């Protein structure tokens, strides 16, 4: 498993901003864009850069805490 796969990430539409927002709260606040597929690719590139920076600086990565919902209420 790649390190990036430990972190939950998603794309959602923001009515307020009228754009898609890519999120991975354990590592970054988010990025935005017009195309959800391209945005997901960009999100992964940004996260790889963040992970690489942590590793280069010999810093521990945050423990993944955000998880997908297991049940629908």
What are the defining features of this structure?
73 residues, alpha+beta, Double Stranded RNA Binding Domain, 1 helix, 3 strands
> CATH topology, anyone?
Double Stranded RNA Binding Domain
Proportion of residues in β-strands:
15-25%
Helix count equals: 1
Number of strands: 3
Provide the gyration radius in Å: 13 Å
Mean pLDDT: 94
Compute the separation of the termini in Å.
30 Å
CATH architectural label: 2-Layer Sandwich
Name the CATH class. Alpha Beta
Q: What coarse outline follows from CA principal-axis ratios?
A: globular
How much helix, percentage-wise, in residues? 25-40%
Protein name: Pilus assembly protein HicB
Organism: Candidatus Opimibacter skivensis
InterPro entries: TTHA1013/TTHA0281-like
Task: Describe the protein in words.
The chain has 73 residues and is of the alpha+beta class. It has a single domain (3-56), classed as Double Stranded RNA Binding Domain. It is built from 1 helix and 3 strands. It has a 3-stranded antiparallel sheet, with helices on one face. The radius of gyration is 13 Å and the shape is globular. The mean pLDDT is 94. InterPro entries: TTHA1013/TTHA0281-like (IPR035069). This is Pilus assembly protein HicB.
Task: State the gist of this model.
The chain has 1 helix and 3 strands, in the order βββα. By secondary structure, the chain is of the alpha+beta class.
